[in-house]
Amino acid sequence: MKIGLTYDLRSEYLALGYSAEETAELDTEETVEGIEQALRKLGYETERIGHARALMQRLLRGDRWDRVFNICEGLQGDGRESLVPALLDAWQIPYVFSGATALALSLDKALCKRIVRDAGIPTPDFVLVRSEEDLKKDKPAFPLFVKPAWDGTGKGISEQSLVNGEEKYLAVCTGLLRRFHQPVLVESYLPGREFTAGVVGNGADARVIGVMEVVFRPSVRRIYSYENKQDYKNRVEYVNTTGELFDKCARLALRVWEVTASRDAGRIDLRLNEAGEPEFIEINPLAGLNLHDSDLPILARLNGMDFTGLIAAIMQAAEKRMCMKEV
Asked: What is the pTM of this model?
């Protein structure tokens, strides 16, 4: 079986003049090589395709693949992660990971929180700031946590994201609006511990393969910021979660997975509220897959699953889903 690989190579965008922060979500050569090697170990033939524009050119040229392993994040717009799945749907080529709708939903953090909240899943109270005029509108009580509404990998998140007063709120939100040219998500700040849950599978077969706590080192402020993620080896420690807390996080993660129609594998970020109960923060159904540094492979490794085993589990889930669809 021939597997095409779609991805956004970070080095290509850096060469075009984009900054390190702008390209933070994109893939390194090491990431692509790791996935390719794992798939080959599992018996698949692989072929590199590249970014969305390369996929368009290949499709129009008549190239086809049995499956596509898609990790394209894109760079522009609120539908950037949905472009490759939509193209593959149009050409009726099966692909691994979530479809266009789920990826568009998860990228829009405010919209995703509305869907999750309507399903009765706890998530911090929030408002969306689309313009400086919106800063005059009602909002939850301080302290608040503010971040760009359409970005990941901690982009736009720093120690300034936690705000305790009006003056700082206005300054930080205004700065994010002008810097990232997208809405700002304003949430009630949850003071508790931070976790991420890894999910593999679909429907009744979906399972949590592990829940990992993000533990900040004593000298580091407890904000999973862009800087802390980039320098995680020196700033945080990842600790496996077990027992009752695992069960609570896992149940919530699986509810979110179902409500958002996510597929095959991904991560759900959670934080404890004042009562010590987990609440939904955000979902990443297109989780990073660097075999050394990405949260999902680290989480899998903490639970006895090596990188090839993780890719095997993802492919098994995808194949079962595709076979059921074809029946």
From this structure: 0.95
